Protein 1
Amino acid sequence: MNVVIGTMRNGCVETLKQPRLFATVIGSRVMCSSKTDLPIVAAKLPFRVKLTGGRKYAWCACGHSKRQPFCDGTHRTNAPSISPVLFTIEKDCTVMLCACKQTKNAPYCDGTHFKVIFQHLASSVKNMFK
Ligand code: FES
C-alpha cells in the first residue's frame, strides 16, 4: 500500500527551493520523492499577461514550469497526475493568471493567493519562535 505521509521535516527539505518533498511508505520501506500530486506555488502574486484572442493557451497547473504561467511540459516528470488547463479567449485582453496554483477559477486569479501569503507568513512567524 502506498501512503503519502506529508512534507518531509528533516534533511532534504532545506536543500529544495520548494518545500514539497513527500515520503511514500511501501511496505516497510520509505521512499523520498520530489514528485507530488499537489501543485507547488510558482509565485505568490498573479501574473498579469496580455493574451491574443483566438489563440490556444496551456496554463501551468502544477507550478513546475519554467515558462510561468504557461506549461512547458515539466508536469510529465514532476507532477504526472496534474495536467495543464487549456483555454482560449475571444478577443485580445490583459488578464491576471494564477501563479499560486490554488485558484478555484483556473486559470484566472481568484484572490486565493492572499491565503497562501498569510499561511507563509504564519509559518515564518511560527518558525521564529521555535
Ligand atoms: S495567484 Fe493564485 S489565486 Fe491569485
Note: The chain has two helices and seven strands.
Protein 2
Amino acid sequence: MQISRSFLKPPANIPRLPEWGREVVFVPEPEYVVIPLQYPGRILYKPSVKIGEQVGQNHIIGRSRLGHCIHAPVSGVVRDILAIWSAKIFHVPAILIQRSQRPALPLPEVFQQYGIPLEAASSDTKLKALGVISPWTRPGRYQEEVEEAFPEIRKIIIRAVDEEPTVFINDVIIQNYTLKITRGLVHLAHLSPRAEKILVVSDYLKEWAEQQFGKLVKIVVARSGYKHRISQLLVPKVAGIPIPLNAAYRAHGVAAFSAEYLLNMVDALDGTAPFTGKFLTVAGTSIEKPVTVKVTVGTTIRQVLKYLKLDGNRYARILVGGPMQGIAQYTDLTPLTKTTHGLYLMDEEEIPEETNLTCTNCGRCTRACPVNLQVHLIGRYAEYSMFMETRDFHTEACLECGICAYVCPAHRPLVQLIQLCKKFSGISNEYPQQQSECGASSALERWELDFQNPNAVDSGVASGDGDQPVAVRN
Ligand code: SF4
Ligand code: SF4
C-alpha cells in the first residue's frame, strides 16, 4: 500500500503502513559527522572545542547557557566549525568531526570535563552532562531549554507510538529494548513516586505490553490514524487534563516523552552513555517495507541512504520526518540530529504537477482540521499579505499537522501560509527567527568535495560499505 496525496481519503484515517520492519538496522559510524549546535527556538550550544582538536567519542564539544551538553558521537579530529542548513531549514553553526581510531572517552572523564565527579552527580546533573533535557524541566514535546519552575508532575505520559504514519521507531523500540524500558520505568518510579505513569502503545501491542510493563505503568492504547496520534491532542486526552493547544505540558503538571527518550534517560541516569545515537524510520512510496535504523547523530542523509543501498538521486524529494509534517531538504548532506525521527523518500509521481492553485472554497481543509480553524480563510488573507487580520482566526492554535494541505485538492501550501501568518501577525511561533550569524551556506558541500579527494584530508577509517539493501519497488 502506498501513502498518496489523494484528497478522497478521510483525514482521520490517514493510515499507517500495514507492514514495516520490526527489527533495528544499525548504520555503522560514518567517516565524518556534522553536529548542528543550534535548534532554533529550542537550544543553542556554544562550541567548547577548536578546529584541529583531537576528541574521543563522548567528549563534550558544546555546552548550552543552562549547562546542557552535546558530545562527539565518534572519536576523531575537529576539522571545521561551519554553517550548514539544518533539517528544519535554518542556517545554523555546526561542528564537523572526521573519524579516527582514537579510544572513546570513559564516562568518569566526561563528568570531569563537565566539572562534577560522576559519583557526586545528581540525576539532573547526569541528564544535563549526558545530553538529555530532563523531563522535569522540559516544557513540551521538544528538546527545549527553559529556566521556569514548573508545578509538580501529576502524570507522566510515555509515548510508544509515533505521529507520522510512516515512522515506527517507538513501536520498534519497546519490542527490542524491553529490559531497558523496564529499567526506565523503575527510574521514573523512584524519581517521581507520586506521579501516575501511563505508557501509550499501538493496539496490536496492548496484551504484550500489559504482560511486560503492566506492574509498573498503566497501559493505554492510542487509536490508529494520524489525527489520533498528534502529540498535542493525544497527551491531554491520555492524561485527562485539559491543556490549551500548544501550551507547555509541564505547566499543567504533565511530563510527556517518547519511549526512545526514556532509553536515553536510562543511559544518562546509569552514567553509561551520552545521547549520541538516533533511531529513525526510512520509508517512501517505492520502499516495500520501511526500515528503522539507528544512526550516529551527525550522520548525513547521504551516508544513511548509501548504507541502505538506496540511490538518493532516484527520488524527487527527500523529506526529514514523514509525509505529513516532513520538511523537504535542499541537499542530502543534511545531518541527522537528536530530533530527526524519519526520512521519507518521495517519487516523482507523488508530487502534484500543479500546486498552489486557486482556492475553490470546497471547505475540505476546514472540515479536516483537528482544531477547527477556518484554514481556507486564513490562507486567502495570507495570500494578500493581510497577516494582522488573521489574528482573529487563532492561528496560534494551529498544530502544523499538515492535514489541511494533505486534503486540499488545489494543493495549496496551507501550513506554510499559516506559518507566515504566525510570524507576521506577532503570534509567537514554535521556531522564532533566530538566525545564525554564520555565513557560507555551501561550506558543507565544499567540505564533502574535499573529502572525496583523498589528498585533501587524512581519510581515517573506512566506513561501512552498505550491506543492508532495502527492497525498492521498480
Ligand atoms: S484551501 Fe483547498 S481544501 Fe481549503 S477550501 Fe480552498 S481548495 Fe478547498
Ligand atoms: S496544519 Fe493547522 S490548520 Fe492545518 S489541519 Fe493542522 S491544525 Fe488545522
Note: The pocket of iron/sulfur cluster (ligand 1) is lined by residues 359-365, 375-376, 379, 408-410, 412 (CB under 6 Å).
